[in-house]
Task: structure prediction
Amino acid sequence: MPHMDLTSVRENGSQRSDSVRSRILTYASIVAASALLGICAPLLASSGGQVGQAAHLVLSAGWSWAALAFFVGMSGTSKRFSAVAGTIALVGAVVLYYVTKAAQGDYQAADLTDVTGQTTYFDWNGFLTKVVLWGFFACLLGPLLGIAGNLARASRHRLPCRLLIPLVAVVESSMRLQNEASVQGDIATTTWAAIRIVAVAAVVVLVSLSVLGGWRRRSTSGL
Result:
């Protein structure tokens, strides 16, 4: 009995250690994904070249930010964890995005008391307004997108949830093509058109796989 109890204690300790390690890796992945989106999106805007500009358009699009919270939510084993993870991912990305833009000099304003116009100061009001505004939307949408990602794994609502990001991409890219393409230029037009084609293809594939899977399950149950 003492030997069995000692073995049980060791197994429980090992399981707890694995659980802690798994959570650390999960949160580290969330932080890494947030940093990748939040830092790279503004940096690519000034990287130069057509590829950099196209990548900036992709990473700065609303559907990309929605996808961040959605796919982070897919990694969660519970709806609560997915909601928290989606929120952390979006809030972290928002903060890093505007910190990066500030480091690039976007919030340097001219000091009007200097007649030479050479003195500048950091516009904290403009910076904090952007962070608070988009941080609010991140807190509002992060839990919903995280839970949608969780439900997309294996729930009975998985198909609508899986279609969420492609449909958002279709709507957003269509609106941009209609309203901004003539102003933004050929690279933006080509990028948004390509995004719409890929998103529509993703919708078709997901629906087809769902229909095929349902047909196979009915055929199997009929046997």
Notes: The chain has a mean pLDDT of 86. Helices lie at 2-45, 50-60, 62-74, 79-103, 124-154, 158-179, 181-184, 186-222. The chain has two domains: 1-155, 156-223. Residues 156-223 form one domain.
